[in-house]
Design brief:
The complex is a heterodimer. Among the domains of chain A are: 48 residues; 380 residues, 3-Layer(aba) Sandwich (Beta-lactamase). Chain A is 37% helix and 19% strand. Chain A is built from 24 helices and 22 strands. In chain A, strands 2, 3, 4, 5, 9, 17 and 18 form a seven-stranded mixed β-sheet that branches. The longest helix of chain A is centred in the N-terminal third of the chain and has 25 residues. Chain A is elongated, with a radius of gyration of 34 Å. The termini of chain A are far apart. Chain B starts with a helix and ends in a 5-residue tail after the last helix. Chain B is globular and about 60 Å long. Chain B has a three-stranded antiparallel β-sheet, with helices on one face. In chain B, helix 12 packs antiparallel against helix 13. Chain B is mainly α. In chain B, 71% of the residues lie in helices and 3% in strands. Classes of the chains: A alpha+beta, B mainly alpha. Chains A and B meet through helix 2, helix 3 and strand 1 of A and helix 10, helix 11, helix 12 and helix 13 of B.
Chain lengths: 657, 374
């Protein structure tokens, strides 16, 4: 090789080192060839047999999600068996023939089947099974099973379908399940790292309790090793599997069950009354310790439609509905509380001694303040009244005067501690905050100073202040308990498969407003008693704004409220609300607790666009209270029940679809 | 035509190392045939887009080969630092901002191509190490701590970053390739002894504090594949069945049941050699191994006849690159090593691997091209 230039100075010293390379290469070559020889020639026959006769594939078995029960152990959410039909493109010789054979059974056009399979093939490759139709009927399953053996690549897969026996009732609370989205996939895999991995097509809880409880109720998916023949069809054989005992199916572990604080019968009453009256809005009933008994938001949707894969048409209907059926109005809709707010202003005014229980205040039909007239709800006003009558008849002018005397900062100190304008901390996701304004808030958010006139509008719950139905329930509950603000909750217990309690949630008192150490502005028991008397008169008094809501014997105390949707000029204020287009009608509030002395239950209802609190929201609250007393204290209202014609509200049919 | 030009033409063709070109072409052919089988099911009629992609990468790869061959490799020495630090910057970017895939950040997404900087770092590292060490005057005993400091730093910085991504397979390869080159240049014996000792001591520490769970699982599963019913143990067993069931002459082109019926995971990338072994048996696997050995021998010959130390070091680096990839990938497929996501050069599907390998052998060709006087 004379034409090579070799520089003896530079590279000569390297030459001996290449010998080591030959050694490494020879060693590698010999080891690899020996290993190949061992696998392919010595063990070859045996391994060939494995690959011919036993083809084992891994398949994921979805774990059944845990069940959801009410406080009495009645079922609220359960699982039904379902069947899907799956096509595996890799085993299909003639797609058109298969599509023609399937089409009359599952009633989908052959063209559509072909399109679906081809699309999946392009996107996911030939090995991914295509779910042609899910939630098959029994007849479809029966007919498909008969042709299955003649069509390689056709499979019927058993699935679990989430079922909500209450149908549309409480849908926003329970949430729904659906396939994991592409954006959720990496997030969930990170979240469940080392526990289980998610892939496309996996079903997860979306929204409401299904979402919050996901980690507890999803269980753990199992793995099945399936033997398939040369055409990919499942087969049975004498030997369990080629690995002997080494590879075993891993059974899915079903998720933990959950016991809620909900009372199914009250839930049914609440929903039925609300929908029969064609109300839009939210209603929540809570035991005084924070346990939620009923939670309804209307209009609603049917979560069962999501379980079987919702059609785009139905989905867009839900999305475009102006009354937002997917919204959980109990915690996501927030409006001015209207006159329900007056109870809190009354507490502040009494405690600050702006007014004494028996101080007479003159309340004409309008009050001039600054350069504006502030009107009462009743033309001509209420005359000379005490705080009891001001609450009973819901005088605006009385509370205008209280507002002027207190000022927003005092009102803020007293009222925000009831939880107005704060999340209640309930165990359901995406709760709205609401708003309790003060001058600092206004400066920060609107860049303006607080105007004295705003003390008036806010004192009657019409200014900036905004609450959700649940916030109002918690705040009124605190009035009923004379100062104890509780944390509302829905999840009571989590129970594992053996029936052992995994987690127990107990009632929580966040603060006691009678205790100076816990309260921003302490309120005495006497003050609470005065206001409770006023609220009692709202329902039980002869001129109470909600006297038709009264249930003799139950000792109900409460307050009506109306939220103006828009501001109107003076003459329009007295125009009949019912004559306006529905979207411009006022929202009605009613919130009540009973028995007033020793409250057990608080109910808050928001009836959107119902014009009045008393007629719009009142009856709903009344029916729920009546159902509660009928169930737990029938003796207290026995006399009343005898007199009234009992309208028994039937629970919806639970079995069947 | 005047005489000078005729001489120039004749010598151009004579100066190219045709043995190298032919061996690579044969490996490309084997790779494409095999990839066709891996990407096409038994009943598919359309040509798969992955296969088309690979052909495009192959053409671009040969363009790289040609360009690198024609450019004097001394030029590499001049741009070595620039290329290395640009590459390092890309790794830093990817480690903290890259596209997350399979639980690790590895890529910069250009839309048509996902660039994996840790892959090109293997080559950039080889070039810069060769440059740094070619200019050192190393005595007979080998490199001591003073000489080793800079080269080790150049290896360890990208290594740590890639571990952070976390991509243990690529990180280990960067380390192994770099250290192979250091060893070739010669390291003092006491340093080697110290390094081995440290390794033995450090292993338990790494096991407890550095390795992620999935990485530990892979090692455990390799040591006892039957422990793990769900993950890599299953892959390892399926791969062994695929290879073994090929017997002497294999099941035939596109007739491998293990690969066609989806038992083999990642069959077009990491487990491409199982497909080959299943369909072409011992004969096919043996011949492929021979092809790789021929490639290695050609590279050693070019290295040992190169004009200068820099050229020789470059060749040794590229040799280490291809050898270690082949060693780890095949070792994993035939059940001798744990499951590590490492591609088989020239056979596995993948743009980054193809371009890096073709540029690497382009460097060999460039060194071979300039052995001649004229």
């Amino acid at each position: 090789m004379s034409e090579y230039i070799t520089n003896p100075e530079e590279t000569k010293e390297l030459l001996p080192r290449f010998r080591l390379f030959y050694g490494v290469l020879a060693f590698t070559f010999v080891v690899f060839v020996m290993r190949l020889w061992y696998l392919q020639i010595i063990e070859g026959t045996e391994l060939r047999e494995f690959s011919e006769k036993n083809r084992i594939k891994q398949a994921k078995i979805s774990a059944p999600r845990g069940l959801v029960f009410d406080r009495d152990g009645k079922i609220l959410v359960e699982n039904h068996p379902g069947f899907d039909v799956i096509l595996s493109p890799q085993y299909i010789d003639n797609l058109e023939e298969v599509a023609e054979a399937l089409s009359p059974i599952i009633k989908i056009d052959a063209d559509k089947i072909i399109q679906k399979v081809q699309k999946s093939r392009r996107q996911n490759g030939p090995f991914a099974g295509v779910r042609v139709k899910d939630n098959l009927s029994k007849e479809e399953v029966f007919r498909l099973k008969r042709i299955r053996l003649d069509i390689p690549g056709l499979d019927i897969r058993e699935t679990v379908v989430r079922y909500y026996p209450l149908q549309m009732n409480g849908a926003q609370l329970f949430g729904y399940v659906g396939e994991i989205s592409k954006t959720q996939l990496p997030r969930y895999n990170e979240l469940y790292k080392g526990f289980q991995s998610f892939e496309q097509g996996d079903v997860i809880g979306k929204n409401g309790l299904e979402e919050v409880l996901e980690k507890n109720i999803r269980g753990r998916d199992g793995i099945q090793f399936i033997q398939v023949d040369a055409f990919g069809r499942e087969t049975q054989s004498a030997t369990p599997n080629i690995y002997g005992e080494q590879i075993k199916d891993q059974d899915p572990v079903s998720g933990n069950s959950v016991v809620l604080t909900l009372d199914k019968s009250l839930q049914a009453v609440a929903y039925n009354v609300f929908t029969q009256a064609q109300r839009i809005g939210g209603v929540v009933a809570m035991k005084s310790n924070g346990e939620i008994l009923a939670w309804v938001s209307t209009p609603s949707f049917n979560p069962n439609e999501f379980s079987v894969g919702i059609s785009p048409q139905v989905w867009s209907n839900y999305i475009n509905d102006p009354f937002k059926p997917l919204r959980n109005k109990v915690i996501q809709d927030y409006f001015s509380p209207g006159s329900t707010f007056k109870a809190f202003v009354a507490l502040a005014a009494l405690e600050e001694e702006v007014v004494k229980p028996y101080t007479i205040v003159n309340c004409p039909g309008l009050l001039r303040f600054g350069r504006r007239d502030y009107h009462d709800s009743v033309k001509g006003g209420h005359g000379n009244i005490t705080i009891f009558e001001a609450l009973e008849r819901s005088s605006n002018v009385f509370f205008f005067k209280m507002g002027i005397a207190l000022g927003i900062e005092k009102m803020y100190d007293y009222i925000s501690q009831f939880g107005i304008g704060q999340k209640t901390g309930v165990d359901i996701p995406r709760e709205a905050v609401g708003l309790m304004p003060n001058s600092a808030w206004k400066k920060a958010n609107m860049g303006e100073e607080w105007q004295p006139g705003e003390n008036l509008s806010n004192a009657i719950g019409q200014g900036f202040v905004q609450t959700t139905p649940l916030q109002l329930a918690v705040a009124y509950n605190a009035i009923g308990l004379e100062g104890k603000v509780v944390k509302p909750f829905v999840i009571q217990k989590i129970i594992d498969n053996q029936g052992q309690v995994v987690k127990n949630f107990s009632p929580q008192i966040l603060r006691d407003l009678q205790n100076p150490a816990e309260a921003r502005a302490r309120i005495s028991a006497e003050t609470f008693k005065v206001v409770k008397d006023g609220l009692r008169r709202v329902v039980q008094g002869s001129r109470g704004t909600a006297k038709h809501v009264n249930i003799p014997g139950a000792d109900v105390a409460g307050k009506t409220g109306t939220t103006q949707v828009m501001s109107f000029s003076a003459d329009q204020i007295y125009q009949r609300c019912e004559n306006r287009p529905i979207q411009m009608r006022h929202h009605g509030w009613f919130v009540a607790f009973a028995p007033a002395d020793k409250p057990e239950i608080t109910v808050a209802a928001l009836a959107e666009h119902s014009c009045h609190g008393s007629s719009g929201a009142g009856p709903v609250v009344r029916e729920i209270l009546k159902a509660y007393f009928e169930k737990y204290h029938p003796d207290r209202i026995a006399e009343f029940m005898k007199k009234t014609k009992v309208i028994k509200v039937e629970e919806p049919a639970l079995e069947g679809e | 035509m005047d005489l000078a030009l005729q001489i120039e033409q004749r010598t151009f063709f004579k100066r190219v190392d045709w043995n190298l070109v032919v061996v690579i072409l044969v490996l490309n052919f084997v790779g494409l045939v095999n990839l066709y089988s891996a990407t096409h099911g038994p009943h598919s009629s359309n040509v798969d887009s992955l296969f088309i992609n690979q052909i495009v990468w192959l053409i671009v790869g040969w363009l790289c080969f040609a360009v690198v061959t024609l450019v004097d490799y001394q030029f590499l020495s001049r741009i070595a630092y620039f290329v290395y630090f640009v590459n390092l910057a890309a790794i830093v970017y990817v480690t903290f901002h890259g596209t997350v895939a399979l639980g690790a950040q590895r890529w910069i997404d250009f839309g048509f191509f996902r660039y994996q900087p840790s892959e090109t770092m293997k080559l950039a590292g080889i070039v810069i190490l060769a440059k740094v060490m070619a200019h050192k005057n190393i005595e007979g005993k080998g490199m001591g701590p003073k000489e080793l400091f800079i080269p080790l730093l150049l290896i360890l910085v990208p290594f740590v970053l890639v571990v952070e991504q976390p991509d243990m397979g690529t990180a280990l390869l960067i380390l192994v390739i770099g250290c192979s080159l250091l060893m070739f240049v010669k390291v003092r014996r006491w340093i080697l002894v110290a390094a081995v000792t440290t390794g033995v001591v450090a292993a338990p520490v790494a096991w407890n504090y550095v390795l992620r769970d999935y990485q530990k699982n892979r090692i455990v599963n390799f040591l006892s594949p039957n422990n793990d019913r769900l993950g890599s143990g299953y892959n390892s067993i399926q791969s062994k069945i695929a290879v073994g069931s090929g017997k002497i002459v294999g099941k035939g082109f596109r007739k491998g049941t293990q690969s066609q019926l989806e038992f083999l995971p990642e069959r077009h990338t990491d487990f491409i050699f199982s497909v080959l072994s299943e369909e072409h048996g011992f004969v096919g696997s043996f011949l492929t191994l021979i092809l790789f050995m021929m490639l290695f021998l050609i590279i050693i010959r070019v290295a040992s006849t190169s004009r200068d130390k820099f050229g020789a070091f470059l060749c040794v680096g590229v040799l280490a690159y291809i050898f270690w990839h082949m060693f780890i990938n095949m070792g994993m497929v035939i059940g001798l090593l744990p499951i590590v996501g490492v591609p088989l050069p020239l056979l596995s599907y993948g743009g980054s691997s193809m371009l890096t390998t073709m540029s690497g052998v382009g460097i060999i060709s460039s060194v071979a091209f300039r052995r001649y006087i004229f």
